[in-house]
Amino acid sequence: MHEGSVVRPRGLVDLRDSGEVPAVLSYPPDAVVVVSGLPGSGKSTLLRRWSRAALVVDPRVVHVACEAVMPTWLPYAAYRPWARWTYFRWLRTAVRSGKPLLVHDCGGRPWMRRWLAGSTGVQGRELHLVLLDVGVAEALAGQAARGRWAPRSAFGRHRRGLDRLLGSFCASEEAATPARDVLREVRSVVLLDRGSRERVSVVEFGGGPVRS
Fold first, then answer.
1. pTM to 2 decimals?
2. What's the 3-state SS for the chain?
3. What is the average pLDDT value for the chain, to the nearest integer?
């Protein structure tokens, strides 16, 4: 494998600190791919780059739409439950469509992954996961660059959840069981750091033969 290659992920694919990063990740034509990472880690930027391949379901879209119709004096916390329910309904409808899908998710909510695994499984579809492991400093710098900060409590909650998820893939006896649990829910997990995140330029669904 080298840059310019196409990889069809299966199992754990760790591309962190890797000199061999594919240009293309190729998934089945009806797959659901979840992109997870800390706020500011580059999820939205990555999904915009990949968005030609499939519909992107991003909670930020719902957040902005809600803000547009709410009074400016009303804090987001007041209508957050409605926004989250609206997002979940959108996600549920998108999953039920049977079309390929890219999903923006913090990664710290196991129940969401389990729900997606169950929903796609009954349709005979595959669920895949892409995890951005860029570190806290990089994520905070990303928030500063976009001029939008996650609340400290939310960032801490996402960090703890993502740390548990990433930790389950460490090479240790203690991590073996949770790692297997995650890999039972998804067909593949691709781990990306800052460098490899920039080098995977395309996602395709139902692509042609692998090029090398």
1. 0.84
2. CCCCCEECCCEEEECCCCCCCCCEEEECCCCEEEEECCCCCCHHHHHHHHCCCCEEECHHHHHHHHHHHCCCCCCHHHHHHHHHHHHHHHHHHHHHCCCCEEEEECCCCHHHHHHHHHHHHHCCCCEEEEEECCCHHHHHHHHHHHCCCCCHHHHHHHHHHHHHHHHCCCCCHHHHHHHHHHHHHCCEEEEECHHHHHHCCEEEECCCCCCC
3. 82
